[in-house]
């Protein structure tokens, strides 16, 4: 009888079309459906589902389709159009069990429309804008047949030497956690099964941003308290928000690579956090267990990974090669494989693919006539979001905004740099569609003023660096040098400056300098550009630096040289227009730094919420025998939360509703913020809390809330922040998460340093 049923099901599955029509009732109950399907699968088919392959231009498509039809591939990434993916899904529908493929991609900060890099999005402190960017990215990617994104990337990064700082949302646990939640909800919409949603897979689990010395792929050695308190909450926030997937980090954690880490993957993720989704290794990570030195060969690597709970293997063949043997020898159990397959099938179920494998691929007749058509972009949204992410760092003598009738000398290697404008991980973005700074300025200036362009410098004069950055891009190198001598370029720029009212210099990093595998020992603007800035300064003309970079830079000298500095990060498809909006005052900048700017690389780490110490540096006092570097000023160049506006804001004294708080009670901290300048503008009012004395040392302050407010010139508004016991909780030495009675300081300010303070007691 049972056999007959099974045969019946196989026969049903073999008929076209799909699950919804053939077994609608079965689809109602995910667990039952998945278990039922699992029972039909051969070992080969199961292991096939655990294989995630990267599609390269060189790969023979026919072979891939054959493999899919044989049930030997579960999903792909890097194939990103409907016509590319449809034949693969067709192949899956020819497979014995017709298990649909999923199509993944790194949709990090936009898909076709490129939004500012994540670090820039975080600079907006604007949850609505960030959410919009994620929703549009999901809609565009889903319309191109993608089902899942390897995002959000929520690795806390406190060492800007790490090139992937650009990919994350900065140094602060609270801010990054808020954004993690917003991004997951934006990607997934009301359900990852919607045709215009992507499943999110939060990465890189865990602690990748804390690699030693900022050296990519390096080890992480961290106390449990620091992990739980500072680094783990953003991943947890993403999971609580419903992230369907988790990508596992390449690094080791306290001696055990994440990919083999049963504590991380089983105890923490699945048991403690209750994660019930798909885990994916990072590129080649299972194989790398051999390099890490925890597996002696591929067989052991596959065993460690499957035992740790790595469901899908990204781009290595070890599961396929080794799992059958491991099972046969009894080194792993059938349930190890089945559990992993269950998650893959479950994720596909959650993506809506069993209801309709063509949910996002659609019908061929509905394919866009031109996949790359400009009409498919969301330019207005990209411009709006980009300008919210720009941070005004300096504006001496109101150098900005510029007059639209001005003659502007536009110089610098990043003034006309469409690729760099997109930043790294620019998904399906096309450089030809990105608006450069030159385009943006020209569009505003028109006939009214004049833009004189001179490149002025190459990104760097260091050929070895250029070669490094172009290493993987032989066909179309990203960093292309002007062959003139550095001096000839500077001379031309100085000539342009002399004819101008003001200089706008677009300087910083090429996008590849802030990318995966792009760690730096030095956070200076490259010397070629520093020579240019020095020569420009010598002309005596007002100098505006438009910084483009994916990490904080040490710009101590440039801060003295420049009259104004606008941090634009890599602002995306509409970057040039957005920057022009701010430079000319059509938009009043409102961004705040989500990461501290050090004075020099030697100060790192410089994150604002460091722990208290016994001999703190005390400003204004002789510093001997206190914690500091004696050869430089103590403290950052620009603190976390900092950013200027074209208007000014004042804060009234803070009012606390009480000087005590009960464990179940609420405290209200309020402040009136007033726009005291002449133009409308937005600012971010930030609330920090310090636990004055606890059972263990605590940070000098921690961001606990913020509000971004728009105020017309002269307008004022009273803002209220609610403080509860939850805001005071922390992980103690026993990793117990609880608040301790005693005194707390509340600080409110417009950045993390310039704050006013009051105290209360938790009873
Ligand atoms: C390696 C990167 O570490 C990861 O972030 C990315 O998602 C994968 N490659 C796939 O592109």
From TrEMBL:
InterPro entries: Cellulose_Degrad_GH3 (IPR051915), Fn3-like (IPR026891), GH (IPR017853), Glyco_hydro_3_AS (IPR019800), Glyco_hydro_3_C (IPR002772), Glyco_hydro_3_C_sf (IPR036881), Glyco_hydro_3_N (IPR001764), Glyco_hydro_3_N_sf (IPR036962). Keywords: Glycosidase, Hydrolase, Periplasm, Signal. GO terms for molecular function: beta-glucosidase activity. Residues 683-752 form the Fibronectin type III-like domain. It comes from the Bacteria. It is an enzyme of class 3 (hydrolase). It catalyses: Hydrolysis of terminal, non-reducing beta-D-glucosyl residues with release of beta-D-glucose. One of its GO terms (biological process) is glucan catabolic process. Belongs to the glycosyl hydrolase 3 family. This is Periplasmic beta-glucosidase. It comes from Pseudomonas rhodesiae.
């Amino acid at each position: 009888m049972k056999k007959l049923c099974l045969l019946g099901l196989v026969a049903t599955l073999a008929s076209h079309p799909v699950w919804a029509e053939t077994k609608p009732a079965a689809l109602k109950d995910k667990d039952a459906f998945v278990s039922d399907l699992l029972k039909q699968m051969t070992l080969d088919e199961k292991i096939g589902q655990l294989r995630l392959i990267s599609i390269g231009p060189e790969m023979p498509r026919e072979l891939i389709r054959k493999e899919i039809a044989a049930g030997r591939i579960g999903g792909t990434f890097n194939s990103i159009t409907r016509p590319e993916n449809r034949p693969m899904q067709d192949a899956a529908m020819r497979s014995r069990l017709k298990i649909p493929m999923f199509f993944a991609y790194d949709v990090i900060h936009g898909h076709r429309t490129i939004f500012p890099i994540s670090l820039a999005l975080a600079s907006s402190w604007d949850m609505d804008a960030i959410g919009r960017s994620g929703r549009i990215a999901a809609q565009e990617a889903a319309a191109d047949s993608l089902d899942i994104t390897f995002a959000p990337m929520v690795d806390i990064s406190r060492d800007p030497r790490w090139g992937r700082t650009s990919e994350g949302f900065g140094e602060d646990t609270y801010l990054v956690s808020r954004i993690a939640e917003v991004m997951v909800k934006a990607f997934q919409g009301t359900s990852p099964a919607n045709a215009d949603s992507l499943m999110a897979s939060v990465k890189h689990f865990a602690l990748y941003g804390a690699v030693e010395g900022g050296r990519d792929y390096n080890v992480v050695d961290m106390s449990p308290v620091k992990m739980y308190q500072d680094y783990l909450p953003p991943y947890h926030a993403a999971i609580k928000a419903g992230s369907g997937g988790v990508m596992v980090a390449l690094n080791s954690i306290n001696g055990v690579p994440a990919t083999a880490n049963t504590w991380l993957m089983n105890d923490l993720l699945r048991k403690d956090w209750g994660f019930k989704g798909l885990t994916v290794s990072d590129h080649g990570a299972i194989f790398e267990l051999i390099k890490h030195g925890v597996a002696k060969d591929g067989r052991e690597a596959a065993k460690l990974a499957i035992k740790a709970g790595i469901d899908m293997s990204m781009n290595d063949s070890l599961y396929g090669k080794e799992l059958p043997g491991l099972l046969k020898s009894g080194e792993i159990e059938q349930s190890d494989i089945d559990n992993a397959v269950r998650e893959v099938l479950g994720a596909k179920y959650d993506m809506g693919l069993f209801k309709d494998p063509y949910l996002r691929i659609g019908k061929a007749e509905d394919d866009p006539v031109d996949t790359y058509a400009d009409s498919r972009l969301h330019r207005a949204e990209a411009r709006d979001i980009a300008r919210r992410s720009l941070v005004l760092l300096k504006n001496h003598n109101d150098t900005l905004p510029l007059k639209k009738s001005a003659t502007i000398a536009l110089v610098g290697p990043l003034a006309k740099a469409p690729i760099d404008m997109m930043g790294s991980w620019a998904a399906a973005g096309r450089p030809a569609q990105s608006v450069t700074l030159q385009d943006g300025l020209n569009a505003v200036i028109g006939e009214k003023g004049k833009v004189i362009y001179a490149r002025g410098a190459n990104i760097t004069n260091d050929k070895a660096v250029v070669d490094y950055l172009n290493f993987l891009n032989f066909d179309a190198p990203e960093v292309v040098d002007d062959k003139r001598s550095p001096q000839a370029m500077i001379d031309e720029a100085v000539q342009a400056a002399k004819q101008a009212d003001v200089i706008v210099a677009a300087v910083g990093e090429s996008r590849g300098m802030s990318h995966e595998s792009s760690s730096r020992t030095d956070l200076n603007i490259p010397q070629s550009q520093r020579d240019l800035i020095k020569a420009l300064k010598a002309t005596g003309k007002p100098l505006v630096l438009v910084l483009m970079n994916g990490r904080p830079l040490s710009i101590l000298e440039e801060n003295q040289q420049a009259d104004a500095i606008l941090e634009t990060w890599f602002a995306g498809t509409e970057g040039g227009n957005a920057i022009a909006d701010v430079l000319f005052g059509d938009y009043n900048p409102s961004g705040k730094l989500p990461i501290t700017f050090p004075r020099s690389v030697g100060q790192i780490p410089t994150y604002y919420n460091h722990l208290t110490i016994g001999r703190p540096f005390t400003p204004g006092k002789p510093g001997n025998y206190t914690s500091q570097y004696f050869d430089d000023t103590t403290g950052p160049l620009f603190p976390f939360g900092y950013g200027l506006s074209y208007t000014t804001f004042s804060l009234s004294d803070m009012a606390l509703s009480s000087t005590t708080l009960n464990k179940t009670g609420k405290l209200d901290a309020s402040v009136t913020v007033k726009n005291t300048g002449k133009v409308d503008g937005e600012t971010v009012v930030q609330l920090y809390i310090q636990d004055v004395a606890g059972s263990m040392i605590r940070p000098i302050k921690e961001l606990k809330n913020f509000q971004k407010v728009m105020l017309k010139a002269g307008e004022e508004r009273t803002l209220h922040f609610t403080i509860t016991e939850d805001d005071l909780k922390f992980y103690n030495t026993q990793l117990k998460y609880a608040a301790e009675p005693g005194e707390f300081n509340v600080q409110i300010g417009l950045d993390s340093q310039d704050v006013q303070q009051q105290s209360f007691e938790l009873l």
